[in-house]
Amino acid sequence: MQLRLFLCSVCIFLLFALQAQQTILIRNISIVDVEKGKLISNQHVIIKDSVITAIFNGKKIVTTKVDTIIDGTGRYLIPGLWDMHTHTWNEGTTFPLLIANGVTGIRGMFEDMGNVKRWRQQMNNGKITGPQVFAAGPIVDGPKPIWPGSVAVKDAATGRAAVDSLKNKLHTDFIKVYSLLSRESYFAIAEESKKQQIPFAGHVPNEVTVVEAAKAGQKSQEHLYGFIELAGDSAVHWFNYQQGKIKDSSFSTRSKRKDFLFRTYNEQKLKLLLKEIKKTNTWICPTLTVNRGIAYVNDTSLLNDDRMPYVGKFMRDFWDYRKDVRFKSWTDKDFEQSKQEFEMKLKIVGLMHKAGIPIIAGTDYPNPHCYPGFSIHDEMGWLVKAGLSPAEALKTATYNPAKYLQQTEKNGTVAVNKYASLVILSKNPLQDISHTKTIEMVMVKGKVFTAPQLQQMLDAVKKLVAATQQQPQYTGMHTDED
Fold first, then answer.
1. CA angle, corner 301, sides to 480 and 298, nearest 5?
2. ∠ CA 47-53-54 to the nearest 5 degrees?
3. How confident is the model at residue 7 (pLDDT cuts 50, 70, 90)?
4. CATH number at residue 208
5. Is the C-alpha dihedral spanning 179, 387, 412, 273 positive or negative?
6. What is the distance of C-alpha 179 from the center of its chain?
7. In angstroms, how far apart are the furthest CA atoms of the chain?
8. Domain that residue 68 falls in
9. Three-class SS string for 190-258?
10. Do 324 and 383 belong together in one domain?
11. Same domain for 66 and 94?
């Protein structure tokens, strides 16, 4: 009862905070051109209802009648951010965290489509606020799926049927493929997705190579799975093992398998593979935040993060390796290997970027040390450490998602006729990517949230977490160990 009343109060607050403005003028602001990575200084931006209707030089006289004026002097305007790999299990706490951090769009990688439909209706009716949501619905996995609620596929026929059902009955936005699909099932899904004209994305299955997946039309590949494996000098042996063609007793433990992969990894071979992938239309969603969270899951100091008050008891337990059955048996060597693998993946992302392979930013919240909203800023920071410039990292969370989703007419840049889903920053993000955290105002399709209102959102979530001390269990989590 207490939880229901509190969520109701949060929704009422959001409803009043988001009363639509008729016409808004943002005056004398610097627009960040995220597509080209440059600033356009001293601009006036006119917003009517949910869209940008005019942009012009600040030296010109404003003749349009406006209801609200926002002074943008010394500030920076960017499009709303997108988190392109998410799992939303509690919109009452997650959506406020997203909006407070400037995230106005997400790609849900394992969602209940009934929830997605309800969210969209409530947002359209003004009952709640939240990000635009593109969703896959249930995961499509092998005959014995890793996660409950997945679609079990045993062969090509059931793979094709799954695509048809997901598109035409559940009306998902895309198909998410997963690790345990057989080769036969995977390529049938790829073929049927093309026939049905629906994108498919997700894990590259264990039996399939990243190059094969790219050539099959997989729109995005998540988590960097399969790159170290295929770049090995003994990749043929490894994939014969994965496909069950051979047995190898030396692969009896995780650490032995990792030893083999690290020992045989060949960076020059990887560069050749990246050239092949560049010829396709595949995007990469590295999810460095979750990769790092798993790599350092035994670093208990991370549990003292200032953002932990936004995380409920269930998730805290999940993030604590001492309470997680998957990591209890890990040796010191396993933990060291996980850190080594993360460093390798950072380098791989840098090489991907140099090869011209397009990247989209995603966090994989609420997996270990992935905070809804907050962690998209972490992700951009890791991309900079991998070799992208601040402008390039910002593009992965703004323009690139819009291009990937074929939404550039309405999203991705600050431009006329696009949604007024915007973020005003006090510092220039092209100088330092951490400046995306200097949020002074967020607009969600023209609805304004000031800094005090954003702080009230954060405080409300923190209070709810403290009151309940637990979160509902979510069954869509995954890690590198799946």
1. 35
2. 100
3. very low
4. 3.20.20.140
5. negative
6. 19
7. 77
8. 2-79+413-468
9. HHHHHHHCCCEEECCCCCCCHHHHHHCCCCEEECCCCHHHHCECCHHHHHHHHCCCCCCHHHCCHHHHH
10. yes
11. no
Tokens for 155, please give them.
């062969």
CATH number at residue 425: 2.30.40.10
Q: What is the pLDDT of residue 12?
A: 37
Q: Average pLDDT over the chain, rounded to whole? A: 92
- Per-residue pLDDT tens for 303-329? 899 999 999 888 888 888 887 777 778
- N-to-C CA span, the chain: 37
SS (H, E, C) 361-412: CCCCECCCCCCCCHHHHHHHHHHHHHCCCHHHHHHHCCHHHHHHCCCCCCCC
The answer to whether residue 479 sits within a structural domain is no
Domain-located, residue 478: no
Domain total in the chain:
2
For residue 446, give the amino acid letter. G
Are 447 and 20 spatial neighbours (Cβ–Cβ below 8 Å)? yes
What would the mean pLDDT of 412-439 be, rounded to a whole number? 98
The answer on 125 and 54 residing in a single domain is no
Give per-residue pLDDT as tens, 55-109.
Answer: 999 888 888 899 999 999 999 999 999 999 999 989 999 999 999 999 999 999 9
- Amino acid identity, position 428: N
Within this chain, do residues 208 and 303 fall inside the same structural domain, yes or no? yes
Mean pLDDT of 162-167: 98
Give residue 23's pLDDT band: very low, low, confident or very high (50, 70, 90): very high
The answer on 191 and 137 residing in a single domain is yes
CA separation for the pair 322, 311 (Å, rounded): 17
Contact, 83 vs 365, CB < 8 A? yes
Q: Is residue 341 part of a domain?
A: yes
The answer to whether residue 105 sits within a structural domain is yes
